[in-house]
Amino acid sequence: MRLPPAAARLLPAPLPAGAGLWPRRGAARPSEQVENKTKGKLQKQICQVVLDHFEKQYTAELGDKWTSVRDVLTCPSCWQYAILLNKFSQSAELENTLRVKGYHLAFRGTLPYLPRSLKCYISRTPRRFPAQKHQTGKLKEYYLLNAASVLPVLALEVKDGEDVLDLCAAPGGKSVTILQCAYPGQFHCNEYDDLRSRWLKQTMESFIPDPLVNLITVSKQDGRQIGDFKPESYDKVLVDAPCSNDRSWLFSSDTQQAKLRLIQRKELSSLQFQLLRSAIKALRPGGSLVYSTCTLSKAENGDVINLILKSCANVMPVDISEMAKAVSQEFTFLCDTQQHELLVLPEKGKAWGPLYVAKLKKI
């Protein structure tokens, strides 16, 4: 899951953005260790300001686990890409090709929720399948994504006929994934930024056939206000929130911009809290909400959820530990999380994430 600056996500005014990757614990300086692994053009793209910041923060928050996580995040050649098949444009030939190339179906365990129509292929070997270009009138056969990005959708457990809100929807990967799983009664995909909203619409047109695509509402509202505009309107809400985006921030080429983001980063948790408050208002009693980010930051993950649970008497945590257990062969999780949350840690051979997921229910 790769999130852009928060300003480009939901808000009228520029807010904290994009994100990065980090060095590791140990005797050698972060810059020296990265230098050994990254050559030429790639090595020049790593932002030392971000490396230093993440090294300090994540060593404190993750301890020894930060070493292996950092090794993956600072080595793009280790990164892996999953292939989410489009059920509206499937071919047996494509699946055969994937198997021949060494791909296999992810999510093979006994999950609490796993629709047969959802097919996501992964490979243990770092490789990238060619992307398909948008062609008007022709549906794409697959969507390339980080396999961990499917987990928030599996946690949401959308069923046919339910009214669903994807609060921070662009570029549209999770919306596409939801539609591989079920046919919502009302599907509302929100994206404030005009350019990204057009990108979201194009994604829908690339993967979803007429007339189904015409039943999807794509809006450009401030996500913090949707709960006031549409109170108790949805059975399920996904908040894939603007965050620090650790996987990309490390490679910021503009050092001054990276320094500015370090300052703005402190504001992100406030934005995330406001989005969650809005999402809770938009939920019907008995409805479920899934919150996700692609950062390791405790301040943007567990701290935000804990604040919501303390300040909102009408929500309760939902246990997702069975889902995590069922996919533990494909993903590595941080051990000391609560039952209503999980944090995917990238490691070599399982280079998915980082991704945080938490599930809540409105009562």
From TrEMBL:
<dbReference type="InterPro" id="IPR023267">
    <property type="entry name" value="RCMT"/>
</dbReference>
<feature type="binding site">
    <location>
        <position position="191"/>
    </location>
    <ligand>
        <name>S-adenosyl-L-methionine</name>
    </ligand>
</feature>
<feature type="binding site">
    <location>
        <position position="222"/>
    </location>
    <ligand>
        <name>S-adenosyl-L-methionine</name>
    </ligand>
</feature>
<keyword id="KW-0496">Mitochondrion</keyword>
<feature type="binding site">
    <location>
        <position position="240"/>
    </location>
    <ligand>
        <name>S-adenosyl-L-methionine</name>
    </ligand>
</feature>
<keyword id="KW-0808">Transferase</keyword>
<keyword id="KW-0489">Methyltransferase</keyword>
<dbReference type="InterPro" id="IPR049560">
    <property type="entry name" value="MeTrfase_RsmB-F_NOP2_cat"/>
</dbReference>
<feature type="domain" description="SAM-dependent MTase RsmB/NOP-type">
    <location>
        <begin position="73"/>
        <end position="363"/>
    </location>
</feature>
<dbReference type="GO" id="GO:0008173">
    <property type="term" value="F:RNA methyltransferase activity"/>
</dbReference>
<protein>
    <submittedName>
        <fullName>NOP2/Sun RNA methyltransferase 3</fullName>
    </submittedName>
</protein>
<dbReference type="GO" id="GO:0031167">
    <property type="term" value="P:rRNA methylation"/>
</dbReference>
<feature type="binding site">
    <location>
        <begin position="168"/>
        <end position="174"/>
    </location>
    <ligand>
        <name>S-adenosyl-L-methionine</name>
    </ligand>
</feature>
<keyword id="KW-0949">S-adenosyl-L-methionine</keyword>
<dbReference type="GO" id="GO:0003723">
    <property type="term" value="F:RNA binding"/>
</dbReference>
<feature type="active site" description="Nucleophile">
    <location>
        <position position="294"/>
    </location>
</feature>
<comment type="similarity">
    <text>Belongs to the class I-like SAM-binding methyltransferase superfamily. RsmB/NOP family.</text>
</comment>
<keyword id="KW-0694">RNA-binding</keyword>
<dbReference type="Pfam" id="PF01189">
    <property type="entry name" value="Methyltr_RsmB-F"/>
</dbReference>
<dbReference type="InterPro" id="IPR029063">
    <property type="entry name" value="SAM-dependent_MTases_sf"/>
</dbReference>
<dbReference type="GO" id="GO:0005762">
    <property type="term" value="C:mitochondrial large ribosomal subunit"/>
</dbReference>
<dbReference type="InterPro" id="IPR001678">
    <property type="entry name" value="MeTrfase_RsmB-F_NOP2_dom"/>
</dbReference>
